[in-house]
Amino acid sequence: MALVVFLRGVNVGGYRTFRPSVLAKQLKRYDVVNVGAAGTFVIRKPVGQTKLRAELERRLPFAADVMICNGSDILRLAASDPFAGQPTDGSVIQFVSVLSKRRLPAPAIPLNLPPTGEWGLKVLSHENRFVLGVYRRQMKAISYLGKLEKIFRVSVTTRNLNTILAIAEILKDTKGH
């Protein structure tokens, strides 16, 4: 099965910048598909996670947290329709955060940030290495997302649900190869 790579904290605010399309070309022997500018890749040819991680770390121009998931986990997540019944207007963003490793026991969920008053971020569920939630489109959202690392006590990187669904489509197409 294909692998999915999520890099944490790259190409954000001019910090730790690189060109994901160039990295994808450098890794072409693994049939890599670059998804956006945030350091998200689908690896379509079989390769061990340890070997892939070492290759990525060698080629990146800086140290980065590398989170690697099995494509089957992403497909299962996308198929589960995890945000059914959640608001879909432009003021609320649906997100999936990927934990660097499984975190048990998990904090009590659902979880709101801030914990009192009007919420800015809601954690709706925690499934294996995925934290699913929504946040309001406001400047404080970034700080709320940053607090997920303290709450789950592991490195976390976050993607919009649309990115996860795009990855799932690539993975579905990969099955036909």
Topology of this structure?
Elements: E1 3-8, H1 20-26, E2 32-34, E3 40-43, H2 49-59, E4 65-70, H3 71-79, E5 92-99, E6 111-113, E7 121-127, E8 130-136, H4 140-152, E9 156-160, H5 161-175
Antiparallel strand pairs: 1-3, 1-4, 2-3, 5-8, 5-9, 6-7, 7-8
Helix pairs in contact: 3-5
Strand-residue proportion: 25-35%
CATH topology assignment of the largest domain: Alpha-Beta Plaits
The description of the largest β-sheet is: 5 strands, antiparallel
Radius of gyration: 16 Å
Individual helix count: 5
- N- to C-terminal separation? 11 Å
**Mean pLDDT across all amino acids:** 91
- Could you tell me the number of beta strands? 9
Uncertain runs: none
Shape, principal axes of CA atoms: globular
CATH superfamily of the largest domain: SP0830-like domains
| Overall structural domain count | 2
Please tag this protein with its features.
globular, alpha+beta, Alpha-Beta Plaits, 4-stranded antiparallel sheet, 177 residues, 5 helices, 5-stranded antiparallel sheet
